[in-house]
Amino acid sequence: MNVETNNNLKLTIALAALENVIDPEIQLNIVDLGLVYEINFNDKEKLIHCRMTLTTQFCPMGESIQSETEQTLKNTFPGEDVIVELTFDPPWNHERISEEGKKFLC
Amino acid sequence: MIKSSTTTHYSAVVPFYVYAALCFLISSVILFYNHKNFTGPYFQPSILALTHLMALGWGTMIILGASHQLIPVLIERSLFSEKLAYLSFATAATGIPLLVYNFYYFHLGLGAQAGGILINIAVLTFLVNFIMSIANDKNDNIHSIFIFTAGLWLLITTLFGLLLLFNFTSNILPSGSLTYLSLHAHFGIAGWFLLLIIGVASRLIPMFLISKYTNKPLLKIIFYLINAGLLFFIFNFNFELNLTFIPIVFISVAVVLFIFYCYKTYSERIRKKVDNPVKLSLSSVVISVIPIIILCTTLGFKQHQNVVAYGFCIFFGWITSIILGMTFKTLPFIIWNKAYKNNRVKGNNLDPKNLFSQLNFNFMFIAYLAAFIIFITGIFLLSNLLLQTGAFFMIIAAIFYNLNVFKMVSHKVK
Q: Strands (DSSP E) along B147-201, which ranges?
């Protein structure tokens, strides 16, 4: 798991919250699944920018995961705007799954 | 910014699933009441009707429904028109019973012809919708190519079928319609079902198993082998070359390569816990070998029960097992998205896999396997008792399948 950020303290809080966002098919949270690429915090504009992916562009649950990620960050950081950007560059691959995630899937 | 997959409205998808589920139940009942016909020659009104109900009402309807859902996620664009999806459903849903009812009573006149025309309109509508959806798409997506080509073969199958239907009453073709039945059947079996199932399963199975294995070149080889086999089959038929074994070898090699693809996908999976719907879908990959073995045997012996067993293995074996499995990996997500997409964080809600009863699924799974094994044994042993018992278990499997489908489509947010 390697998530880029400009604020490590806030990132820790955000990732702890995002561990509650579960991929409904795999039943694993999006952090251990390695779907979150980057979360940046713009304190001046009160804006959180999250760049994430899905296990596949074919994921029918994509909209749901994206909206739940957005809602979770809004709830964790009240008063801040949240943009969740979906990217497939680079595409997700199994190497992004954390050790805890791999244990869960076995 | 990339938008997440644009899903088709559930109302353009769910009716196909419901209709197909009912057709599976009706087919099982027809199988039960006509089980004795499976010891005789294959060209009988009840078998003709049953084959078309299974191929169109069950297999094709569910594939069209699932395709309306899958196309947007395959090509990352909205479906061109949901109205065309409704039109496709309405025309197919009217045409199929017209055709099947008239086949059952062997009335090959106006009613059956009207049914055939409506089915062709449904297929054409689906294809137009698909072509318009992928227009200007520059992605070299092997799965889209499989689906598109399968759709073309479906149109060829249904147009040719319509021609054969008119030929029964008007002598349009040089020979009688029965001469061309094997062409019509294999356009549908290999061109439509095989290409479509491989195209979709080669994407979905690795996705559900989270597999490290990918092999696009192998999928391309499979694609060329099936199409070359079909084209050679036409060539062989047209010029009476007596080289039927060549297309059989081409298509058999394609199936074996796909089994290899699935095996590698399975063995290199990260997700070790495999759920029952995926297990059932994988079992269909194994079942796909049985018709090929029967076909090879038929080449040598030409026994009529081989032909009947071949058809049964394809429609009630291979196609049914993959649909029974994949329904529970697609429909729960469609229903779940409809119910919880926008209110998931508000609290306590179900996971997609909890939208249907696991107990019903297990009963369905066991009843289906029993039905398939007993019925196929009954065909070879010419045993009415085994045929009747097998058909009875097929009805049980269809009832449990329907219970789960209706449980899902009637789900309400609590």
A: none
Is the confidence at residue B334, as pLDDT, over 90? no
Q: Among partner residues B70, B210, B337, which is closest to A64 by beta-carbon distance?
A: B337
| ipTM exceeding cut-off 0.85 for this assembly | no
Domains of chain A: 4-98 (3.30.300.130)
Residue B21's pLDDT is what? 97
Average pLDDT score over chain B: 89
Q: Where are the domains of chain B?
A: 10-334+350-409
Measured in angstroms, the CA of A58 and the nearest CA of chain B are apart by 5
What are residue B337's phi and psi, to 5 degrees? -60, -40
Nearest to A1, CA basis, from A40, A32, A38, A47:
A32
The yes-or-no verdict on residue A63 having pLDDT over 90 is: no
The architecture (CATH level 2) of B10-334+350-409 comes to Up-down Bundle (1.20)
**A residues 29-68 lying closer than 8 A (beta carbon) to B:** 54-68
Mean predicted confidence (pLDDT) in B304-331: 90
